[in-house]
């Protein structure tokens, strides 16, 4: 994501009018036979799905007027296609791929990104969703007002009590968060929880003692919408039965359910994909949960609170079926066979694009583009805080890392692994980013064995064994073991090319391909020489949950300085104390996270990245080609291009439609 800034001269008022999908030109799909069943054109005067109208006629569901809020948000269908019914078929890669479920079926945070988001500075790309909002000029006081008449999927009112309960009794309950509360809810200067007040039946106010400018960005990013004891808005009337403060028998319930305590049960019940009982505000509610079959199934929420431009209740699609596949190649075959109405993620690699494109006519689908937010296909983080003092001294030598970088033939990797797409690039923001730093992006990129040897000699590795291996300060051949997560099969392939080129300059590279869980466990234990990953973007202001690749503050992304990140996170009580220049970078980062003035934030960010350029933490390989998805010819209102940010939720899946 690109940097987002805010005009602090005025009070910000977010989305107090009605919402509308931004029309993206150039969309149009060839119609073939319908992929869904039961799709019906929404005729004049028809305001809800026939399946719901039938329930109303039977008296088992209240009339539509009693189910919608007073002023429902208006979502204009992108192609003007307004057809009720059908089943949206898609897939997730193993049961771990819940991000697809969150972003495709349930992207309904308090505030959301606008569909045409391109990363412009400011809050202009954030709009009201479940709630309307205001924030003061210093980013200290936030108010959130729920839409009048909003109801949960069980018909119960959604009120300020639900907000108060979720923030104070879920997000800020130490029992539910034994490892510490997430700092988005605390004041940076004191570490104390923000003052949260109920203003009226629909409104709450959060007051911080110092600026917390990243809160709205994190809400729109759906940071708080995930499995476990999280959220910004949960139905109190349902969840209080599992909370010890409201139910003294909550631990007994947990024991009966076969889990350790009420906190375990609460976190379990909060997962919407395994617990279909909980009420929701999403367009669809779960009917077959994850783990109970070969697919997750969902059906429409009769109390969904958005309408189209003719006042017809959304969503158009009645049902969703998300097949759980165990292999990306299986998903690819199903894509080519035209088995999915709309599908994105997992299969959209450069290597697969030719065959996906060739099968468009046979599969009856089109391809839509998703510009990537990643900045590098693969970065190698050499551990500068290694437990072994000999390795730490060598790895911390910038000449050593520069030599390894010059030894990589990036064009070779791009051609062989990434289908010739992308260009040699270090781990750095792209040219169109306000944080672009040419030194960071382009230094030590050239494949040049002579330069590589010069830098390695300058690092003190002048002695060699009879077979040409460079010897370290301990007299042993220098060897770097690189951890690779099996979730990145391209890295498993790419690292072999790097291995060959490093061997040519006397450095042995050993590879360990491990599961993602084991990878993270080894890195967080500081038990690694190096590790690969992709590289994200640089965003300020941001929360601690973001991956900050260019400053070692987060042990989820600072694979090159895990000890420094742990020192920063523990405020010096754990980890490895960084050198003065890196401490300065951390101080700038802390200041930038709390700076409400966008001009100052941008300047602080540039200083942070200049230090990263001088330090040269990560060795990058190449820029990342855009990814893509497929949409059936009879599946409508999907743009030809969408932002990768929370895709496809960002383009309002509730206005997707199936039919001729």
TrEMBL record:
- Boundaries of every Solute-binding protein family domain copy: 126-554
Q: Name one Pfam family in it.
A: SBP_bac_5
Q: Where in the cell is it found?
A: Cell membrane
How does this chain sit within the bilayer?
A: Lipid-anchor
Please state the protein's primary subcellular location. Answer: membrane
Its domain of life reads Bacteria
Segment forming the signal sequence: none
* CDD domains in the cross-refs: PBP2_NikA_DppA_OppA_like_4
What name appears for this protein in its UniProt entry? Peptide/nickel transport system substrate-binding protein
Q: What organism does this protein naturally occur in?
A: Kribbella pratensis
């Amino acid at each position: 994501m690109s940097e987002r800034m805010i005009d602090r001269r005025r009070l910000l008022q977010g989305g107090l009018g009605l919402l509308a999908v931004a029309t993206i030109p150039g969309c149009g799909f060839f119609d073939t036979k319908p992929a869904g069943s039961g799709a019906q054109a929404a005729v004049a005067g028809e305001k809800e799905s026939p399946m719901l109208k039938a329930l109303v006629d039977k008296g088992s569901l209240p009339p539509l007027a009693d189910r919608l809020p007073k002023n429902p948000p208006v979502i204009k269908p992108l192609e003007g296609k307004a057809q009720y019914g059908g089943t949206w078929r898609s897939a997730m890669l193993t049961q771990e791929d819940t991000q697809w479920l969150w972003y495709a079926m349930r992207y309904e945070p308090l505030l959301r990104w606008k569909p045409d988001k391109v990363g412009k500075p400011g809050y202009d790309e954030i709009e009201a969703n479940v709630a309307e909002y205001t924030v003061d000029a210093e980013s200290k006081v936030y108010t959130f007002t729920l839409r009048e008449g909003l109801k949960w999927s069980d018909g119960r009112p959604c009120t300020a009590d639900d907000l108060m309960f979720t923030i104070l009794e879920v997000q800020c309950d130490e029992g539910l968060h034994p490892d510490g509360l997430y700092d988005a809810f605390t004041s940076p200067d004191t570490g104390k929880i923000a003052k949260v007040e109920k203003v009226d039946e629909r409104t709450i106010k959060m007051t911080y003692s110092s600026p917390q400018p990243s809160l709205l960005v994190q809400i729109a990013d759906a940071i708080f919408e995930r499995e476990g004891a999280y959220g910004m808005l949960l139905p109190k009337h349902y969840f209080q039965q599992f909370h010890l403060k409201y139910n003294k028998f909550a631990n007994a319930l947990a024991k009966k359910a076969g889990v350790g305590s009420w906190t375990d049960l609460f976190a379990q019940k909060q997962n919407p994909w395994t617990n279909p009982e909980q009420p929701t505000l999403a367009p669809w509610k779960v009917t077959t949960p994850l783990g109970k079959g070969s697919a997750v199934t969902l059906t429409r929420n009769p109390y969904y609170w958005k309408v189209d431009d003719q006042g017809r209740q959304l969503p158009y699609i009645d049902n969703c079926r998300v097949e759980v596949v165990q292999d990306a190649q299986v998903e690819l075959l199903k894509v080519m066979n035209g088995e999915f109405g709309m599908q994105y993620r997992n299969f959209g690699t450069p290597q697969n694009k030719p065959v996906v494109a060739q099968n468009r006519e046979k599969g009856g689908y089109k391809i839509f583009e998703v510009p990537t937010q990643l900045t590098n296909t693969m970065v190698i983080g050499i551990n500068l805080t290694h437990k072994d003092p000999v390795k730490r001294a060598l790895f911390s030598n910038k000449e050593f890392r520069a030599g390894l970088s010059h030894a990589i033939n990036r064009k070779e990797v791009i051609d062989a692994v990434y289908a010739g797409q992308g260009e040699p690039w270090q781990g750095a923001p792209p040219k169109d980013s306000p944080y672009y730093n040419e030194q960071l992006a382009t230094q030590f990129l050239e494949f040049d064995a002579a330069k590589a040897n010069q830098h390695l000699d300058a690092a003190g590795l002048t002695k060699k064994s009879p077979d040409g291996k460079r010897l370290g300060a301990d007299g042993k051949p220098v060897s770097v073991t690189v951890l690779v997560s099996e979730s990145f099969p391209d890295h498993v392939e790419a690292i072999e090319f790097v291995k060959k080129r490093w061997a040519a300059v006397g450095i042995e590279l050993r590879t360990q391909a491990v599961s993602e869980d084991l990878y993270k466990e080894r890195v967080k234990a500081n038990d690694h020489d190096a590790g690969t990953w992709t590289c994200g973007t640089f965003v300020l202001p941001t929360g601690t949950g973001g991956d900050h690749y260019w400053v070692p503050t987060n042990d989820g992304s600072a694979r090159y300085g895990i000890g420094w990140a742990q020192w920063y996170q523990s405020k010096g009580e754990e980890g490895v104390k960084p050198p003065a220049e890196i401490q300065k970078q951390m101080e700038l980062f802390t200041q930038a996270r709390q700076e409400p003035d966008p001009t100052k934030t941008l300047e602080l960010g540039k200083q942070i990245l200049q230090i990263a350029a001088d330090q040269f933490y990560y060795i990058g390989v190449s820029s990342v080609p855009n990814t893509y998805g497929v949409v059936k010819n009879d599946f409508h209102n999907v743009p030809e291009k969408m932002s990768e940010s929370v895709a496809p939720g960002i383009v309002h899946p509730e206005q997707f439609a199936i039919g001729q």
